[in-house]
Amino acid sequence: MLTTTINGITFKNPIIAASGTFGFGEEYNNLYDVSLLGGISSKGLTLNPREGNAGQRIHEIKGGIMNSVGLQNPGVKHFIEHELPAMRQFDTVILANLGGGCLDDYLQGIELLNKAPVDFIELNISCPNVKSGGMAFGIKSKVAHETVKACKAVCRKPLMVKLSPNAENIIEMAQACQDAGADSLSLVNTFKGMAIDIKRRKPVFDNVYAGVSGACIKPIALRMVHEVCKNVTVPVVGIGGITTVEDIVEFIMAGASAVQIGTVNFSNPLAGKELAEGLEAYCQREGLKSIMEIRGVI
Hints:
The protein is an alpha/beta fold. Helices cover 31% and strands 20% of the residues. Helix 3 packs parallel to helix 4 and helix 4 runs parallel beside helix 5 (170-179).
């Protein structure tokens, strides 16, 4: 009833825990059996370990949060040797979310993950390209095309490319990634935002700007997912402000083959379990034999 297939890999349901909000799964497994989820996207990985950003990292706003974590992670090698074995014990699809500061970082990370028991490599192109003045790989379509093409040439796993909503043109960006060989797409990553501490008269975050996520971005994320689904042929995973079963249904009706839940995991650590159970109940009420019957009806 809830199964969905992306790039030949079957998910027991279309709910994936989003990168950066679920650790490596073990933390939440103390609260519920995370094998109930369709998939888990790992904490964002980089070739080498990162300490992340200094200063405040999370700031609550109306309808969501802002984060400036800075991709704190143990590095790809450590992940493969230590965190991945525990993740593989869960009966769910595993996505390795990979970022990088330059193209070579991506390529080396992919080479390592090719040999590891992960089901997908989710390429985070929202990372700033340190060799090009800090502009993210996912802002300009031409840069994204070159990056994805080079990554696809060495990738031996299904390559899912995670798009930034800050792209100059989200439709052109999606098409450029598809043309470069992306097997599937996920969107959206966080929006670029700002918060000011009026008592200190300074930005809340040391980096000034930070990523905005949560229920407040859902209408914009949904629009972008709908636009992309209408203009590409590869499977799309919808992300952005999902907190309810109704939100999931909207993204699937907009054309998504699956969704990722992120910020809601912080406000409700049991969200994954509740949404999976709620989505099954929705299908039963609506008389659906498969949730995919409603995919792309809008």
